[in-house]
TrEMBL record:
It catalyses: 2 GTP = 3',3'-c-di-GMP + 2 diphosphate. Gene3D superfamilies: 3.30.70.270, Tetratricopeptide repeat domain. One of its GO terms (molecular function) is diguanylate cyclase activity. This is diguanylate cyclase. It comes from the Bacteria. The keyword Secreted does not apply. InterPro entries: Diguanylate_Cyclase, GGDEF_dom, Nucleotide_cyclase, Rev_trsase/Diguanyl_cyclase, TPR-like_helical_dom_sf. The lineage of its organism: Bacteria, Pseudomonadati, Pseudomonadota, Gammaproteobacteria, Lysobacterales. SMART domains: GGDEF. Residues 414-547 form the GGDEF domain. The chain crosses the membrane at residues 354-373. Keywords: Membrane, Nucleotidyltransferase, Transferase, Transmembrane, Transmembrane helix. Its EC number is 2.7.7.65. It comes from Rhodanobacter lycopersici.
Amino acid sequence: MGAILEQADALQDTDHARSMPLLALLNREAARLTPDQQWHLRYLDAWEAMYESDYPKSEALFRDIMRHAGNPAWADRASALLLWQLVVTRRYPEAFELADRLAARLPQATDAKARFAMLLNLSVSLAVAGQPDLAVRYARMALAEAPAGKGSCYSADSLVVALSSGHRLTFDSPELQQAIHACAAAKLPVFSTDLQLTVGDLYLYEGKPRKALALLDQIASAIDADGYIPNKLEAMVQRARALAAIGDDDAARKAALAVVAMQATGDWPRDAYELLYRIEKKQGHASAALDNYEKYVVLDNAYLDDVNVRTVAYETVQQHVLLQKLQTESLSRQNALLRMRQQLDAKTAETNRLYLALLLMALASAAVWMFRLKRSQLRFKKLSHLDGLTAIFNRQHFMGEVGRTLHLLERRAGTACLVFIDLDHFKRINDTYGHAMGDEVLRQVVVASRQHLRQVDLFGRLGGEEFGILLVECSRGQGMAIAERIRLAVEAMVVECEGAVIAISASVGLAFTDACGHDLQRLCREADAALYRAKRSGRNRVVADIENNGLIEA
Ligand SMILES: Nc1nc2c(ncn2[C@@H]2O[C@H](COP(=O)(O)OP(=O)(O)OP(=O)(O)O)[C@@H](O)[C@H]2O)c(=O)[nH]1
């Protein structure tokens, strides 16, 4: 069935008579066709209806195919033929709107047959619309894409029509000769003859009536054989014009009257009446001339009206299309603007997020930096409070802390005991064992003393081999006992150097708040005095003041 379908398609415009039984057969067996083949058949039916001038039927079929055929090739071919039908039936606005849609669709159309039909009919419709440049452009595209055989004839012919609509042809134009050869080769005699008649028309236009007559004689038998009435009428009109041009008025009148007698529509009767008018006028037959002139004017006006209608229709469609394009452009500009704004918003949000992240990072690193700074400040501060050798309070800090503590104790009537410790004959240790050994002794004295102190007690190095201790909330008896334990601990220290045990002892002086009050200066003075006394009375002992007027010795 597929092969029959293709055969019917191929024969339809070349051997119409043979295509008809095939088409009838296909319609009878339509149920056996695939859905795509059924659309193909519908297209051939539409073509047939158009061929038989049943335009309502063909239009309905074309539009059905355009809307519902799944395969775009059928929709494109149907659109191309509907365009031609709309031009032929002079529905120019619809035709030119469809032409516009087809032109826009063209880049997407891929089926070769559909593209070719679109190009051909676009060229024809634009020639009718008075747009020769566009018509020539599409005709040249059709020529370039034409399938071999009849396709070359159709496209070459459409190029001739397009060029002719723009008055760009002469009788020896190569496009004209090329078209005549292509149609002769494709065995499309009606087209060949039509093109020969175009040459004849150009002979007449260019003042070569005898050449026109010779050509008409040459193709007369072919025209009779074809039986194609439009060609026959054209040949008759041209012969009448040629005869008039060479002055054979009688023969010209006869030929023109023969055209009128055919009662055809179109340009031929108009041309015939115009010729008759000129002949009658030339021969002084005023009344006949006027009669023919009136008939000529009526037909010419109709022709001019039609040209006018075509031009206006084309312009209207173009304006309409332009307006739609402008609206679409304006909408897409608005959309683009909206998109840009959205992108900008997104970018701004992203930038803000980045700034925030950057800010947080900066804050975090500042916090880390501050924390480190603070920590190192605290470390330095702590270090600045300590003695470098023994890691107990240095003199300055010790004195500050003692002063603060005494102040607090004074406010709550607490007691304290200030203890000054000085190592005995320390110079000798240095001199005998070296300064490093002396340092080691100092460190060990601190370790030994600390074991007898509580957390709340303050311990500092006052300088050289002298230490200070504030025993907080401490009675006189407790203070004496602690001082004594420290002295014993120092005495008991075993520090060896090169096998020799270093003898170490300390003298201790104490001052108590219950006797001296909470004044730091005074307490220091009293403790110092007690220490001095301890030294003077033989060293390695604990001495305390007794209410400033006596000393007790542990
Ligand atoms: N190794 C060491 N020696 C120090 C340090 N500070 C001070 N000295 C020494 O301690 C010694 C103190 O000597 P003196 O003031 O004469 O006292 P002393 O020899 O202990 O005699 P008395 O106190 O009278 O028993 C000096 O030789 C100082 O150089 C130190 O940090 N390390």
